[in-house]
Design brief:
By secondary structure, the protein is mainly alpha-helical. The chain contains five helices and no strands. Helix 1 packs antiparallel against helix 2, helix 3 packs antiparallel against helix 4 and helix 4 packs antiparallel against helix 5. The model has no long low-confidence stretch (mean pLDDT 87).
């Protein structure tokens, strides 16, 4: 039966395969003296997402196999929930903010809005989010010598 435990991981696997093709078409920069090229991290993330999705599909298949033996009827969750719609809208907004403001400011804003949306009151989480964003920015910029998006405004 088609449900979100099968549909979404399968969709990620298909999109990942398409992404790997697109990533392989990236230009090789000649001006950048880095230990890895621009395709390395997107490739690693895409492969990791595809492997995790394949594991989720396999787990769903195993669970259905067991439930069919027990022949128990359960009510399935809807394919789209309010939280999944929020997640998609959040990621689209974050991608738009990165294009406009650049990685650093967009990530700081996005993490803060995420914590506010879920009503997180502990200031430590906001500090950890900010330290994480700045650490990633420093790691990519200074250690890996890979420029993160600057944005068109800032």
């Amino acid at each position: 039966m088609l449900n979100r435990n099968f549909l979404f991981p399968s969709l990620i696997i298909l999109l990942g395969a398409a992404s790997l093709f697109v990533i392989s078409q990236f230009d090789k920069p000649m001006f950048q003296d880095a230990s890895v090229d621009a395709a390395f991290f997107p490739t690693v993330v895409t492969i990791a997402m595809m492997v995790i999705s394949a594991v989720l599909v396999f787990q769903h298949w195993q669970k259905n196999k067991l439930e069919n033996k027990e022949s128990s009827q359960k009510k399935e969750a809807p394919i789209f929930s309010k939280l999944s719609i929020f997640g998609v809208a959040y990621l689209i907004g974050y991608a738009f903010l990165i294009h406009i403001l650049g990685y650093l400011f967009a990530s700081l804003i996005a993490f803060a809005l995420y914590l506010i949306y879920f009503k997180v009151k502990k200031p430590l989480y906001y500090v950890i989010a900010a330290v994480f964003v700045v650490s990633v920015y420093y790691l990519f910029g200074e250690v890996f010598v890979i420029a993160l998006p600057d944005g068109i405004i800032l």
